[in-house]
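Protocol step 4 of 6: structure prediction from sequence.
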Amino acid sequence: MVDNFEAGRRRFLQGAGIGGTALLAGCTEQLGLGDDDEAASESGIGIVASIDQQQLQEIQATIQQEVQEEVQQEVEDGELDEEDAQAEIQARFQEREGEIIEFIEEEIDAMRTEIGDEYSIEIVEEFPRTGAVRADGEPEELIAALELDTVQQLVSASDLQAPEEPEPEGE
């Protein structure tokens, strides 16, 4: 549960890092140095927010502990059997994933504010599950945004097209 959420973000960041060459190619397109019309149709660049990992882990651990305690109490009270307890823990954690997403959205909002205060970069779309946004702006400003504390990295906009919701198991 907690590992799945963190693993998804980690896979996104690793995959996005591999796309660094594509990112540079996108910047040359914006500068008018490239000649690939197909790449130009993909507008924007991805900006990944710098998420406070310690606070994120604390939120996840708190939710996990609360859910486990609730389910354990139900098992002790005879309301739930041991065999169904693990599935119930997972289901309840997923129900509370909104609290994690809310925290990440707050981090994205902080990044959006800082970028807006410093640059004329336009945030076009948010991807809260990965802690990233798609943005448009001058290449020089996009690169300069890396100096902000709230910005972790730039990625290719195509890396942001990952599904927002994980596929339900068994479907």
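Step 5 (inspection) to follow. Confidence is low (pLDDT under 50) at residues 18-25, 28-41.
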